[in-house]
Design goal:
By secondary structure, the chain is an all-alpha fold. The chain has one domain (about 40-240). The protein is about 80% helix and about 0% strand. α4 runs parallel beside α6 (about 120-135) and α5 runs parallel beside α8. The longest helix has about 35 residues, at about 5-35.
């Protein structure tokens, strides 16, 4: 069978797009299971905080920034948000809503010791990643599901904040200076979010100048959704629903 030049060009283009996507998919399957099971406060960090009494801004600030920069679940969701909007001003609006949501539940969740199952909360965070990617791909609209995108981002921000709160609830931190330490942690989270988000915005907005952006858009959101599915499955397995 002899392929025409047009067919060869189409095959080459398809292969060029799918190969990086396939590679990223393999990487997701290899690294996310371990990350999903180990996405808490590092033992060394926990031990350091447990030995400290009173208000300590920088240790909590560092922990919050570190958690957000390495928080693959939060960054996957934010990547979906950046893909959804088209102007930098919209990025600011949506990320501000997300930040307000996770600030409220992060501080109140720890300060008032709100009980929450870490596996279920992280499973819902995984679902939020799936939702955002599905919305970007038009899958939700095609089956008649439509939510106010700003309300959804704020609502999922509340869940992400509760997820952050469960990480701090896992360690016995001093009640002396607790509110100040929580604020310091949250400030660190915001700084880490800005750092991670800046990279995402630059990368995604740069892709929009590429003539193949639509293919990258679809492949990237499929990968984001896949990451969300893996995260959700592992957290539900940890909870016992899928075991």
């Amino acid at each position: 069978m002899i392929l025409s030049q047009a067919q060869l060009n189409h095959f080459h283009h398809k292969k060029e797009i799918s190969s990086p996507a396939s590679l990223l998919l393999v990487i997701l399957f290899l690294i996310l299971p371990g990350l999903a099971l180990g996405h808490g406060v590092a033992e060394g960090d926990a031990s350091f905080l447990q030995q400290r009494e009173g208000f300590h801004f920088w240790p909590y600030f560092y922990l919050g920034a570190k958690h957000m920069v390495t928080g693959y679940d939060h960054l996957l969701f934010l990547a979906g948000v950046v893909f959804f909007v088209h102007r930098l001003s919209d990025v600011v609006v949506y990320v501000s809503l997300f930040a307000l949501g996770h600030t409220l539940t992060l501080i109140s969740g720890v300060f008032f010791d709100v009980p929450a199952n870490v596996y279920l909360v992280d499973a819902i965070i995984g679902i939020s990643v799936i939702y955002k990617a599905a919305e970007n791909l038009g899958a939700l609209e095609s089956i008649g599901i439509k939510f106010d995108p700003k309300a959804a981002v704020f609502g999922f921000g509340l869940i992400h904040g509760l997820g952050l709160a469960t990480k701090l609830q896992e360690i016995s931190i001093s009640e002396e200076g607790l509110l100040g330490n929580l604020i310091a942690f949250n400030v660190g989270v915001e700084v880490g979010q800005i750092l991670g988000l800046s990279f995402l915005v630059i990368m995604i907005f740069a892709l929009r100048t590429n003539t193949r952006y639509r293919s990258y858009y679809v492949a990237s959101n499929v990968l984001i959704m896949t990451g969300g599915i893996i995260l959700t499955a592992y957290q539900l397995t940890g909870y016992g629903l899928l075991s």
